């Protein structure tokens, strides 16, 4: 079944100014609509490495959801466990400045309760056949607890991505059960109730090591934007992953691509440092385009150990 990805689908409405962006003013520009959502992006990123993931999610009954499902299927993502419900599709409205950064956004979250029913009915078959599980750690606690119980039952590793750390901090008991948590610098500050905005990678890696020992989180990676990323594990090991230089067009989806690369690496034989390198490569490929996901790669390009070998 490959990697099983569990999370929401959004439609992203993105506005780009044609001239210098004026906060509070009327800006002439372009408005694009693309398929989004943290875990939807992650599923497509994984599929773009030809790894055929399974996506567990919900959409609604509109034509937009028809387009979402058609694209997922074209990318060879298994959508068997995607259901249509009322309010199943989220919306994210964002305005970008001339540097490609988000300056304002509003989002409407979908109702994900049907995902809980999917796992009640098919959870054993989904998790039993998975290579690993990817979840948004800020989903409803009841859904997450079911997934983690099944993962423990079938001895599957769970990788957690954060879309709202203010909610994720309430899942500390589950964070301790994840194989690896990935978040950005600001989110790590929320999680550990400290300000890391001025920290350099070397110092942040040491801080992260101490925090994991105290919090009992097994592994964690913190992305630091143009400063790269740092990683640490609960055994005291830590390191730095430098960034790749790239022209910034649109930062949307780069964190999701980074996470996808990390999850793929850890699932298929790589250590934390190597997985961070894969994540950085995927994130860099997204930053340089207006797409939310990475372009096509082959698993051989990352020397992934699939089925005990180095090829598909």
Automatic annotation (TrEMBL):
<protein>
    <submittedName>
        <fullName>Carbohydrate kinase family protein</fullName>
    </submittedName>
</protein>
<dbReference type="InterPro" id="IPR011611">
    <property type="entry name" value="PfkB_dom"/>
</dbReference>
<dbReference type="Pfam" id="PF00294">
    <property type="entry name" value="PfkB"/>
</dbReference>
<dbReference type="InterPro" id="IPR029056">
    <property type="entry name" value="Ribokinase-like"/>
</dbReference>
<dbReference type="GO" id="GO:0016301">
    <property type="term" value="F:kinase activity"/>
</dbReference>
<feature type="domain" description="Carbohydrate kinase PfkB">
    <location>
        <begin position="3"/>
        <end position="289"/>
    </location>
</feature>
<keyword id="KW-0418">Kinase</keyword>
<keyword id="KW-0808">Transferase</keyword>
